[in-house]
Amino acid sequence: MYEYLDKLQPVILAGGEDSGVGYNGKALVEFEGGTLLETIHTILNFTFDKSPIVVTDDKKQLSALPAAKDMFIVEEAYKGAQTLGAVATAFQYTDAENIFVIGVNMPFISIPMINKMAYHIQMADVVVPVQDGTDICLHAVYNRRVLPLMREKIDEGEHLLHSFFPQIDLVQVAVRKDKEEDAIFFNVHSTDDLKAAEEKYEELRRKEPEVFVPVAEAAK
């Protein structure tokens, strides 16, 4: 059904603190009976042929999780370069030409959207979802061709993925609101966000199970 996913390397960006949800790191936020990291890792591990790479700025902290023994966790190679450095780091740990990148505080994953982006990456350097003229650089697909440019931007002091977008072949894929794909734009940054995410997960579990794979089913 999803014929373009087999060559994608899934990557979870799990670095950075988020005190707004009461934890030292976003990855450790409790969600769906585990943590945000465990939730997203389970879904990606179930969906893709390749095991997810977890990129973090504190490998020791994540390695303390009981579930970490089954995860491939690497530490960012470009300190202070934030998302730009984290994605560049991921390419160093895979031979895949294309990687799917998602933030650890983005619990809503649309497999149909990823499949569409994986199709378009054949003709582009980066493919991102877009809604009402706004795109997100996470829940996006990157081709290895951009790695030299990413390193160049890091050397120049840049740390945002959007910093090199004007210089590449970029494809934007519109989300379908009728299929709840716009939920991929949801980020957990506060306790209110967390509560809303939990409620949304329950709603999607009932309404669109084929769009957002429920963690309970993915773990079977």
UniProtKB/TrEMBL annotation:
Entry keyword annotation includes 4Fe-4S: no
SUPFAM superfamilies, A to Z: Nucleotide-diphospho-sugar transferases (SSF53448)
Source species: Megasphaera hominis
Keywords: Cytoplasm, GTP-binding, Magnesium, Metal-binding, Molybdenum cofactor biosynthesis, Nucleotide-binding, Nucleotidyltransferase, Transferase
MobA-like NTP transferase domain sequence ranges: 11-154
Pfam families in the record: NTP_transf_3 (PF12804)
GO molecular function: nucleotidyltransferase activity
Name of the protein described by the UniProt record: Molybdenum cofactor guanylyltransferase
Keyword Lipid metabolism: no
InterPro entries: MobA-like_NTP_Trfase, Molybde_CF_guanTrfase, Nucleotide-diphossugar_trans
